[in-house]
Every structure is written in C-alpha cells, then in structure tokens.
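Quick question: what would this complex look like in 3D?
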Amino acid sequence: MKADTNQFPELDKTKFEQRGTEFKLGIPITNAVTVGNSIAVGFGDGTVRIFTSGESSEPIKAHKGIVLCMSKDGDNILTGGDDGRFLNISLDGKINEIGNFGTRWVDHVTANNGSLVCSSGNIVYLWSPNHKEPKLFEHNSTIGGIAFDAKGRRLAVSRYGGVTLWKKDYSNKWNSSELNWKGSHNKVIFSPDGKYLVTSMQENQLHFWRLKDKIDSAMSGYGAKIKSFAFVDDSKYLATSGAKEAVCWPFDGDGPVGREPICLPYVGNKLVTFVEPFPNENAILTGLSDGSVFLSEIEKASNTIIIRSFTEFEVSAIAVTKDCSHLLIGDMGGNILWTSIWDEEKK
Amino acid sequence: MEETNKQVPVTVLTGFLGAGKTTLLNRILTEQHGKKYAVIVNEFGEQGIDNDLVVDADEEVFEMNNGCICCTVRGDLIRILSGLMKRADKLDAIIVETTGLADPAPVAQTFFVDQDVADRTKLDAIVTVADAVHLSTQLTDHHEAEEQIAFADVVLLNKIDLVDEGGLEVVKERIKKINPFAKVINTTKCGVSLNEILNLDAFSLKRVLDVEPDFLTSDHDHEHDDDVTSLSFVSDTPLDMEKFQDWFSKLLQTKGQDILRTKGILDFTGESDRYVFQGVHMLMDASPMGKWPEGKERSSRLVFIGRNLESMNLKEGFENCKSA
C-alpha cells in the first residue's frame, strides 16, 4: 500500500468501495446534508452538488469561495458562505438568497418548521415563515454555533463564555437566559429528548448542561479539538471525535456524571475526525484523519466493520439517506464514496 | 519537512492608525503579480483594499480556559484561518492587519495554542509600520505602541521625509532600546522591497540561530519601570540542563506577563546538539537544532524583551545555571 498515491489500491478495496461509486473531485468537502434519499454536499470552492442513486448533479455555484455551513429546510438545503450570503437551494439547483452580509461570513445556518436562522458575526438572524425581515438576536461575541431543539421553541447560541438559550413563549416572544462557562464555545447541540445541551470548546473538551436543573460539567481528556459530535440512539449516547477512539458518553438515566465513556478503538491509531449516528440504531459511522471510515455498534465494539479504506485525507462529511439504504463519505482531499449499505442492494 | 511546505505563511501587520498600514497592504497586493493572498482586516476604513479576498474580522481576544492567565488568543483568527484552509485554491500567503491599538501577543499566541491553525499555517513575521513623526509620542502615551515595537521582526519606519535627521536618530534609538533585534527599514510611503517583509520565517527556530545579542542595550537609564526594554546574556561556560529548565520554567510561570518575547541558543553540558527556543509570554517552542558548527566556540545566548526585567534577577538566575 502506498499512502502518497491518492489512489484506492484495487486489492485493498472494501466491499463497500467495490460496489459503490467513487468520485475524485479534488475539492475539499466541507459539509454533507441528507435531504430524503439525496445527499447534498458542500465544497471548498463554493459549489454544492446533489448526489442521488450514485449520480452527482452538475455543481451548483452557490458561494464565491467556501460553503462554510449547511443545513436542511424541508426538501431544500440552506447554506452559508464566505461571501456573506445565506442561501436556500432546491434539489434541482434553484438558488434563493435569504440574506447577504457582505464581507462578514455566514458561519452557521439552521432551520425548524419553516423558520430559517443564520449567524454572522455576533448576530443571529431569524426569518419566521412568511416574514420578509429577520428578527435579530445580538450576542456579546462572535457566535460559535446555533441549534434548535426538536420542537423549535428553544434556540441555543454558543459564544465566548457559554451559551445563550432563547425560548419562545406562547405569545411567540423570544426571551433569553444565559448558561455560563469560562472559555470559548463552538458547536452546540440539543439532545434529541431535549434534556441536555452540549458544546465543544476551544480547549480539547466538551461541556454539557442538564436543562431541568442547570447542572453542568466538562467532558475532557481529548488529545485534539472536538470538531464532530452527535447523539446516538435517541439520546442514549453522545459520540465524539477528537481522540484516537470514538468516545461515547452515556446520557441515559442521570447522565454522564461519574460514569465512564465507552471508547471504540480503530486499527491504524489515527485521530477520529467525524462521527455520524447510524439512524435508529445504537451504532455510529466513524471517520478518521487518514480517510478510513468504520461502522461500529457502541455496546459491542467487536461488531465493527470497515466501510472505506484510507485515502490519506481527513474525513469531513458522512451522511446516510433517509431510507437508510445508502451512505456518502467525503474528505478534505475531495474524494467521495457513495455506496449501498446492505448486500441485497447489490446490483 | 513536507508538513512545513503545506503551511501557509501568515504575516501580521501592526502599527498605529495613520502610520501607513493600508498603503503597505495595497503595495503588497499590487506588486505581487500572480500570487493569491487573503487579507484579514479589522479597520474597514475609508481607504479601500485592492484584493479579491478581504475578510472582515472582529479582533476578539479569548482567554484560554487552561489556568494560564496571560494565555490569550484571537478567536476570530482561529475561525477565519480554519475556514480559509478549506478553500479549494491554495493561498500563497495570508496577511492579518490589526487595529492600531492591538496587542500583538494574542495574535502570536494563536499560532502556538490552536492545533488546527498551527498544522495548516505558520506565523511568518510581525511587521510593524511606525510613523517617524509621531512614534515617540505614541510610545509615551500608549503601551500598545511599545508592544507593537517589542514584538516586531521588522519595523518599517515610515514618513522619514517628514522628520529631520536628528529627529530620525532619536526615534531609531527609541526603537532599538525596546527591541534591538528588529530590523528597522526607513521608508517614505512604505516603499520597501517585498522580500524584506514577506516570507521571512522569523518565528522558525532556525532563525533564532541568527540572533546576535546586543550588549549595548543592557542599560539602566529608562524613565519608568513600565518601559519595554531588552536584556541579553552570553555564557561560554556550558549550562546545566536541569538547572536551566527549573529556573526558566519558574520564571515564565511567574513573570510571563511581563516577558514579551524570549529567544535563546543553549549549550548544555554533555549534549552535542544546540538547543534553540523562542517564546511569546509563557508559551514556548523549543528543539535541538543540530550539532554545533565545527571549529566554532560553543556558547549560550539568551535574549529577553519585556517590562520590569530589572526586577527579575535575570543575570543571577542565568549565572546559577552554569555547570559547576
């Protein structure tokens, strides 16, 4: 095997690589989002491509330089870019500009039930359905991440010094409360059951708050910054990158305080850079810094299978189609693998 | 070595408002044909910047939550540099313009502290544009001006056509007293050859080997304790590694806020390699840097730039590290 050829040596191909479709596009992949049985992929040249049934659409020229962030809005996708534009793009490539912030990047985008949200600098902009003008939520520092809870009544905004939690009351008025913890907070997510809020920090650690009583705690011990983390199997585990193992913290019962995480090891001893929950299962897809991707059952690490062998480029995107039949893997070298997940789908 | 080639050099442009940063920036951008630069700006002023890739930033200084009080980083730079590294086209260089009142330390520390930034980019040099007419007053009135000189690898002394010869000498003396290691270039309208300010690799440990301590600077006639000065030491007697590490780590821990920059080449007893380090406040890069050149005397050289250096018993501390 040669690490410097940027080729997948035929003999070392996994069965998924053999039956899947590979695209060597050479453009860094920044994001991937599932929209039904299609997967939208954002690139480091500002384009978006839609992958359906192993075919790629023509590149959609969305942003000038980089697709910084992506999310889903119903059957469409939302993107934010380094050209300061916040876009809504349909799967057939129609672009609708929602906002334009000029030289200020659109760092984060999200949506819930037709409400569209982005952040640029220290301001969160929220477009309610059928409203032309956004509502502005200002914060004391640049925003590190935004997330809606499942019902769309709470919007978490991470920032320097903690998280601002915006709550919509029954007269549709948004009120804020602060969850403070020293340091700079980046990505933020709610647990699917709405009980917890988790952030990754500039330091190599995560922080969580239990929302009913505001108790909070750090999850530390990582060797690198945690770029990717997600809840698995409803809210039973929080799977995290940033170590040479996929570190899965238990969030059932009373949460992770005083409990040990499950650590899933992988051959090659490389850094985990991406984790993606496998829908409706107690399992995760784990991407490593060398481009390899594995599927593991959290409670049975011996049930780990290799999906993609190494490419030498860090895995930066993994997405599974809504019907759980196919998955897409992307890396920073611009390599994409689209493959069916189950044997019987082999044509 | 391959890793180094992938790192995009970052030049930091500091200097007070009106010193000529924008003039210099536009000069760089118009003269370097065929190169792709990203420019990160903070003052979106009247003068336009002539480049496709201008990023607007908010000089946000973050304290790291790691118990180290002077460990501050530029949060906006981490975000923007990490974003720029996802671009499909490769950048030849990144230029960060800071506001006139910015302390350069958090910018420099960002490259020590954030792993993603350190993996993909490298701090090339801090270039300070100074106004020959106003620098003396600015140095007296604003500690930021002193810091910008203290951190500089290159000082572009601009608008020299507007001062007389005597005035110019006074300003240069003042710069040398704060930072005798910076290269001072006299200019009018920032007319300077680009290879004097770009791709200097000033923060690499290799460049520390070029440092020649300046013995004339260890004087005691400065006006306040707050003044930034420099001190340097040389020893032909080899140092004891354990003693040195003990003294130096305690020194940085307790006085790191006042010590702005340090550089050194060390000759340890029983070691065949030269040890080289350079630091910003409490953060340090250090490594063995090959064998001592044959036929040349081995000696240890140590340089400090900072405030209140007189109170730190540096000479005594250094002397105590000599092998018995």
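Answer marked as accepted. Residues 216-220 of chain B have pLDDT under 50 and may be disordered.
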